[in-house]
Design a protein that fits this description.
- The complex is a heterodimer of chains A (129) and B (230).
- Helices cover 32% and strands 16% of the residues of chain A.
- Chain A has 129 residues and is α+β, with helices and mostly antiparallel strands.
- The longest helix of chain A is centred in the middle third of the chain and has 16 residues.
- A three-stranded antiparallel sheet of chain A has the order 2-1-3, covered by helices on one side.
- With 230 residues, chain B is mainly α.
- In chain B, 66% of the residues lie in helices and 0% in strands.
- Chain B contains eight helices and no strands.
- Chain B is globular.
- Classes of the chains: A alpha+beta (129), B mainly alpha (230).
- The interface between A and B is medium-sized, with 14 and 13 residues.
Chain lengths: 129, 230
């Protein structure tokens, strides 16, 4: 039996998300099984069923080279760590830990505002030229 | 709620059929030919049992009485028919029964709704939506299997056919005719041939031999302590 991939959208604004796969003898049965397998409890208001053979996959080796271009990629982890450090510093009144690229200058009232972007500032400067 | 004898008999026949075929569907859980079919069967089992529960709730609004209706009712008081009671094996026999049952079931709900009872009218509308789905499932799967295995399916249909008449319980002659016309046409669409004998409603007061196992299964927990509250 062919394999079908099922995508669901919970409401009109959502993008479709991959819900899973199923095997079915043909498209019509795939539609039936998609409901029974993935939409028993209102998990979506729309569903796409796509034959796996219709999916065009990008060669993973074409993607591998991008794995080394991590600059500018921000998962929020560093900013969260820094925010925690600043909160802790505020409690005990110690100086905040330095960040790469330097801490921003204090405001007029002596407090420091957290930089929005704490990464490689020189790269930004390069980009502006 | 007061129901006329005729409407009550129709409703109880349908409710008991739904509960028992739901139970029979559930017995295939984990045994269907492939996973997706397992899930679909489990889902249909739940739907059918839900229909039974909804009818019981109209007839017996009291919850404890309704519970007792399933767990304490003696075999002689059940009104299900031999077709749903049958331990339909192999799997294609269960599939053919599922097809025949669900095609006629839509007509049974319509007939019940036509008896001018508002409670059943609302139930019929809800159940009808689910029944349409069950029917698509049964016809879709049977039609595809019939391409390569029509003789195996036909053999089961021929064998089950004498039990089909009981599904028509309580219907007027014209309701029976339209249900049977639909059934014959649907069987033709999926590549099977309805046997020549015209099904007629039989007596629902007798249980078939297969029923003892079902009743035992329904009641085995409750029988441990009939006075327990759940």
């Amino acid at each position: 039996m062919p394999t079908y991939e099922v995508f669901l959208s919970e409401d009109g604004r959502d993008s479709f998300r991959h819900a899973g796969a199923l095997d079915a003898p043909d498209e019509e049965m795939a539609v039936l099984y998609a409901r029974e397998t993935y939409v028993r409890r209102g998990e979506g208001s729309r569903a796409w069923v796509v034959a796996r053979t219709h999916i065009v996959e990008v060669d993973p080796s074409d993607l591998a080279v991008t794995a080394t271009r991590m600059h500018g990629r921000n998962d929020g982890k560093k900013i969260a760590e820094r925010r925690q450090d600043r909160r802790a510093a505020a409690v005990v009144g110690r100086e905040v830990a330095p960040i790469p690229g330097g801490n921003p200058p204090p405001n007029d009232d002596g407090r420091r505002s957290a930089p929005i972007y704490g990464g490689n500032l020189s790269r930004d400067a390069d980009a502006q030229q | 709620m007061t129901l006329g004898d005729e409407v009550l008999a129709m409703a109880m026949a349908l409710a008991d059929d739904e509960l028992v075929i739901g139970h029979r569907h559930s017995e295939w859980l984990g045994l269907s030919p492939f996973l997706e079919e397992d899930l679909a069967t489990a889902s249909i089992a739940q739907d059918e049992m839900g229909h039974a529960r909804a009818i019981y709730a109209v007839v017996w609004p009291d919850w404890a009485e309704r519970d007792a209706l399933v767990t304490l009712r003696p075999a002689a008081d059940w009104r299900c028919c031999a077709l749903v009671e049958a331990d339909a094996r192999p799997w294609e026999r269960h599939l053919v029964r599922h097809l025949v049952y669900d095609v006629v079931e839509g007509h049974r709900w319509s007939a019940l709704a036509a008896r001018d009872n508002p409670s059943f009218g609302a139930l019929a509308a809800r159940a009808g939506q689910e029944e349409g789905w069950h029917r698509r499932h049964a016809t879709g799967l049977t039609g595809r299997l019939a391409v390569d295995h029509a003789p195996r399916l036909q053999e089961q249909l021929d064998d089950l056919w004498p039990m089909v008449g009981d599904l028509l319980t309580g219907m007027t002659q014209s309701e029976q005719n339209s249900a049977l016309d639909d059934l014959v046409a649907t069987l033709d669409e999926v590549g099977l041939v309805a046997p020549a004998a015209t099904p007629v409603p039989g007596d629902r007061t007798k249980r078939s031999a297969a029923f003892a196992d079902i009743l035992q299964s329904f009641t085995e927990v409750a029988a441990l302590d009939p006075s327990a509250t759940w």
